[in-house]
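Write out this protein's structure.
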Amino acid sequence: LCQVSESPLCPSPGAMSRAAAKEVPQEEGEGGSRRSGWGLLVTAGVGGTLVALYAVATPFVTPALRKVCLPFVPATAAQIQNVLKMLENRSGSLVDIGSGDGRVVIAAAKKGFQAVGYELNPWLVWYSRYRAWRDGVHQNTKFYISDLWKVSFSHYRNVVVFGVPQMMPQLEKKLEEELKCNARIIACRFPFPCWIPDHTTGEGIDTVWAYDLKHSRGCETKSLEITPETES
């Protein structure tokens, strides 16, 4: 039997309990520190994910908070072909109002147009630039991050519009004030309210309307016949 003493070989029960008491809090402290570290990592990861989602979603949500919402709906292959059909025998500069992911601008550039796209969403603009570079038409295309109401389209001869009904009356007035008589406006999905289209193609959501501004504005150039004066 072991006597009650505090010798190194046989420590007393009190010494053993004190030693155990010292070791247990240390182990618990290390475990709590590890749990606290994991908690901080999880919190930081969740916070970073939310910030990233906010940065990505904001350009898509912000346009919807405007008075006139112009959502991003990709153009179908049939719509693009109908737009190109309306551009046959046309030349000069082209602009796509609300260019989205750039597919209309890129398709027009492949047909020889110097094509420009205006889009409010920066993510779509950067993606459009990448697609133009990938398809080898980046030298014939330009994409700008801009609000369409703050841009003048006066120097464009061909205009493509993917709009919504709420914006078409105001846009019709803006284009009529800015464009020259030789301009052609191509509306996709929704027609303009007052203009009468000169050409229409497609069905359903793929319908495309083309308006020659010289007819819509009534500014056809007429040749003047000069009759020689007769001597009396």
